[in-house]
Design brief:
Distance between the termini: 19 Å
Number of strands: 7
Shape: globular
Helix content: 40-55%
Number of domains: 2
Strand content: 5-15%
Oligomer: single chain
CATH topology of the largest domain: H-NOX domain
Largest sheet: 5 strands, mixed
Radius of gyration: 21 Å
Length: 354
């Protein structure tokens, strides 16, 4: 069976050099020279003097892969997340430190995390009994996906601990990736149960602590910080291609993907204008929807709790047979065959039609 992978799209990623320097310090403390994996990603030493290094997705994946292979440490993401304290996150940290509650902090993470990284799409499920902060990869990150998820989610968990020390603000952390060989370390660093092979990548928050007043809260400082974050976000959005904006928007959708007319309305432009601008970027709305469905399909079949019928519905197919035909066009095999080739826990009944 062919390997299940999608070529990562070439999208610009602004990686704060403070994060890279922290990774360099970590690998040096582990006794490794960081030069080989920096060279593997094509990062010149002079770039580390800049506020951020701009990488495309394949280059970023190469950086992470090289760092893991060079150090032979599969839990490198957790070790990096452990070191990234709240004061390393720029204007977003300034906003978070002045939040009135953890609920407001979760909302700020959802709104402004792109000012630090656009690799993950956060979503705050503001449920009164089961609130959670989930993270969806906004591009195919290949072998780097779990490392990035563990780094970011542990970093956010540490921020919540800083804002409300001793409050047990996170009840559990879950990942869709199969079980790792370092689950005990993950549980120790997250200071809560950690489950792999789950239905989503999420921090499950404690509803009893979400509205605790924060001792560091300052409404005026928060307003100023939010304005700075918004200015940064607006700058990033202006620089981002329309294709990337639509991909990010579609990846955050639950259920059927919106039509071109609906997406155009969300972007405050006429459908004809949207079609024309995408054509100028060498693509179409239909092609983007196809790419996003492909990306989500590969993500969903790794989830042992979703049947193929449920996956088809989530991707907007009214007929499971249409989903099966699309998947065979993408991967060359039926989704059931692809799923059975993956190492997974017992999964939901698939009831695929012959």
């Amino acid at each position: 069976m062919p390997q299940i992978t999608v070529p990562p799209p070439s999208r610009a990623i602004q990686v704060p050099t403070l994060y890279l320097r922290t990774l360099i310090e970590l690998t040096q403390e582990m006794g490794y020279d960081p030069d080989p994996w920096l060279r593997a990603a094509g990062i010149a030493p002079q770039e580390l003097a800049q506020p951020a290094v701009e990488l495309d997705t394949p280059r970023y994946v190469a950086l992470v892969r090289a760092a893991v292979l060079h150090t032979r440490e599969p839990a490198l993401g957790l070790l990096l997340g452990r070191r990234l304290r709240i004061n390393t996150h720029g204007t977003l940290a300034y906003a978070l430190m002045n939040a009135a509650s953890l609920r407001q902090a979760a909302t700020l993470v959802e709104r402004f995390m792109p000012v630090r990284t656009n690799l993950l799409q956060p979503h705050f499920k503001n449920d009164p009994t089961a609130p959670q902060l989930s993270f969806t990869p906004a591009a195919d990150l290949d072998v780097a996906e779990l490392l990035i998820l563990e780094t970011v989610m542990l970093t956010v968990r540490n921020v919540f601990d800083y804002l409300a020390p001793g409050a047990q603000s996170v009840l559990a952390a879950t990942f869709t990736a199969p079980a790792t060989g370092y689950a005990a370390l993950a549980q120790e660093l997250f200071a809560c149960p950690v489950h792999y092979g789950a239905t989503g990548n999420a921090l499950h928050l404690n509803p009893a602590t979400l509205d605790m007043p924060m001792s560091t809260a300052d409404a005026q400082a928060l307003e100023n910080a939010a304005a700075l974050c918004q200015a940064e976000l607006d700058k990033i959005t202006r620089q981002e291609s329309l294709t990337a904006r639509i991909q990010r928007s579609l990846l955050s959708c639950a259920g059927a993907l919106p039509s071109l007319a609906t997406s155009a309305r969300l972007l405050h432009m006429a459908p004809r204008t949207l079609h024309r601008r995408l054509e100028a970027e060498g693509t179409s709305y239909r092609a983007i929807v196809e790419q996003v469905r492909h990306r989500l399909a590969l993500q969903h079949i790794r989830n042992p709790h979703l049947s193929l019928q449920e996956i088809a519905y989530r991707l907007g197919y009214t007929d499971q047979a249409n989903f099966r035909r699309a998947f065979k066009r993408w991967e060359g095999v039926a989704p059931q065959v692809a799923r059975e080739a993956l190492p997974q826990a017992p999964r939901a009944a698939d009831h695929e039609r012959p």
